[in-house]
Specification:
0% strand; mainly alpha; 117 residues; single chain
């Protein structure tokens, strides 16, 4: 059964993105869930209901990211190159965040710990 609260969270996140408003998942989640859930947004963002509701906007972001990657080759000698790289970086992080995926590589920390030993 689909979670109406998770779907409502996804809709509000999508609306904020479309209106170019800042997305603060904890605050959005707090409107519909307990305080403890709002402190751990992944509890909501990893649900099937949230994932399905966010799929269209994540797909659009992934399409834009691919377009920016394709344009890199054309802009390599131009000043806008760094803007494209920045856009790709932000789109990738937003896709990860909104898709409930990890936004950091925890294995790098483990690797650094091993190197320090």
């Amino acid at each position: 059964m689909a979670s109406e609260n998770a779907i409502a969270v996804a809709k509000e996140v999508s609306e904020n993105i479309r209106k170019d408003k800042r997305v603060i998942l904890g605050k959005i989640i707090a409107k519909r869930y307990s305080k403890s859930v709002s402190k751990h947004p992944k509890t909501v963002t990893t649900t099937k209901s949230y994932q399905e509701a966010m799929k269209p906007i994540i797909d659009q972001m992934e399409e834009e990211r691919q377009r920016a990657i394709a344009m890199l080759k054309k802009k390599i000698n131009k000043a806008q190159y760094h803007h494209l790289v920045e856009a790709i970086d932000k789109l990738t992080k937003n896709i990860q965040l909104l898709g409930g995926k990890p936004t950091e590589n925890l294995n790098i920390g483990n690797l650094l710990d091993k190197l320090d030993e």
